[in-house]
Amino acid sequence: MNWKKVALGCSISSAVLVVIIAVGGYFAFRHFRKFIPGRMEIPKNLIDASVLTGSDLLSKKTFFEDSRLGKITDIELGELDPSPGQEIGIAGSRGAAFLDEEARLKSTIMFSGETDDVNIIEINADGVCEFLNRGSWGVSASLMDHKGNVIWTYSDETGVDDMDSGDMDGDGTMEFVVGFNGGGGVHLVDINGKKKWSESDGNVWHVEFVDTNGDGILEIVHSNAGGQMTIRDQNGKVVRRTHPGPYFSHFSLCKWPTQKDHEYALLAENDTIWIFDFDGKTVAQFTAPKCGTLGHARGTPVKLMADQPEYFATLVEFRHWNRAILYVHDRDGKLMYQEILPETCASIAALSLSDSKTDTLLVGGDGKVWQYKAGNNSDKH
Length: 381
Known about the structure:
By secondary structure, this protein is mostly beta strands. It has 1 helix and 29 strands. The strands form 7 sheets. The protein has a 5-stranded antiparallel sheet, with no helix packed on it. Strands 2-29-28-27 form a 4-stranded antiparallel sheet, with no helix packed on it. Strands 3-4-5-6 form a 4-stranded antiparallel sheet, with no helix packed on it. The longest helix has 30 residues. It is globular, with a radius of gyration of 21 Å.
């Protein structure tokens, strides 16, 4: 036996193991930091809520408030309830409200099960919405009916990270993709909450259904422990993996540069807002002071002025610090507005209401929704 080769092999194996443990520990820290009691102190530059840039660009007022709903996680405009016409749907962690386009309350429902990140969806094209509870580590993913009753839940021993819905095979029936923590990988689930297939992967932080190449067919896009953007087909096969420049973890989807354009992946990392295509290439990037590396970004183009191109508004949520930052950049990437918000804010939407030539920018906070429009008459309550 060649003991020199054996010793060399053991040394290499040990070094590789140390690297794996170190990298895995770092990524686990990034994900689980929000669950650690007495976690990192809030940075001093995020303590005071205030408008830091562009106080004359936007006016702000409370659009809707109901503390029973919990943290607002989705805002949608469409035919959402049984009554005729469009509604503004506002979903929170504990319930949802439906408003008319003048912000008058039409109805409220409360959810029957434990939820975390709730989206308004429609599963059968009947003009009446349902609710997707995307879940989180410690909270199972679930589908709820229009009244907030749980239809089914889905979980795994490793813990859910995220879930999304879409008609992946084009048969008119929704599927659901679930990403799991640890080694739970990716599962495709049918309309009844039954697993169709599963594929292994590590720490699938976030999952989305996206038509990545414009052929009308949805693919699965997800992140993982290695910071990779992963694209899978309807059978779970990896079509491609890429490494965008920054670590790719809690991304979201956004249109760019207008609401009529394609969807891209949005990420906040290294004091920068990044927009990536699904080959992992940078489409746009914006300087975002104070956003650091630990925020979850959501964004939308917004028509603030009728005679100017759409701006781009980004909301970066810091759940572990109970803060958020709202950024507004112009088409050229110049920072026009920056505000530190005094709570976690997990939803942003630009809605064209009542045939207006401009959009109303809505930001969901804790039991409330703020409205932003062009102007400088601020209402900070």
